[in-house]
Amino acid sequence: MARNKQFDEDEVLQKAVHIFWCQGYNATSIDDIVKHLGINRASLYDTFGGKKQLFQKAVSRYVEENTRALNALLSTSSSVKEGIRTLFSIAIEQAVADPERKGCLVVNTSTELMPSDEEIGSLLSLNKVNFEAILTEYLKRGQESGEINSSKDIQATAAYLVTFFNGLKVSSKVNPTKASLSATVELALSVLD
Predict the structure, then answer these.
(1) N or C: which end of the chain has fewer CB within 10 A?
(2) Measured between alpha carbons, how far is residue 88 from residues 50, 80, 169 in Å?
(3) Which residue blocks in 98-153 are alpha helix, DSSP H?
(4) What CATH number has the domain bearing residue 118?
(5) Are 161 and 117 in contact (CB under 8 A)?
């Protein structure tokens, strides 16, 4: 007879996001996971399939949450340039307020596991494609409204902004000062002028 789970799977997955985000994949042991998640090994394997599967689910969850937040942010902004500026301002505020200096789970995973892990690589590649596609469509709105020059290569601009966003996340782990990060963002966003 199967036993009922004594934990909330969604809550456990959110805790998994946090431990992998703080420690990375390789530095996180099964003992760390069991202790941090508050579940036993059997439950870990029965529910998630093991460390790698849990990690993949944690990264997927992180990506989904951030994609939802990005879409919500951009859909509520009346100005395309201000929407992009707000995106970067939020990234700076999060970096400055984070005592653990976690950066970005996706960026951390890219630097830790790429190019050797094909499964994670596929997930990260899809995330990059989706992030660029969201920004491309958003920037097209700016061109259609006349806010962004129609001669701009919107796809290249979106790819640049994604690359810069990822770099900002790395830099914020080293030097999370609002003034220096904000000055860099202002220079980077001049690409929209």
Answers:
(1) N
(2) 35, 13, 10
(3) 105-113, 118-144
(4) 1.10.357.10
(5) no
98 inside domain = yes
CA-CA distance, 154 to 135, in Å (whole number)? 9
**Structural domain includes residue 8:** no
Indicate the average pLDDT of the chain: 93
- Per the domain annotation, does 162 fall within a domain? yes
Token pair of 18, please?
A: 């946090």
- What DSSP designation does 151 have? T
Cis peptide before 115 (omega within 30 of 0): yes
CA–CA gap between residue 169 and residue 181 (Å, rounded): 10
Cα separations (Å) of 74 from 41, 134, 141, 146?
Answer: 41, 9, 11, 17
pTM beyond 0.70, yes or no: yes
- Domain count across the chain: 1
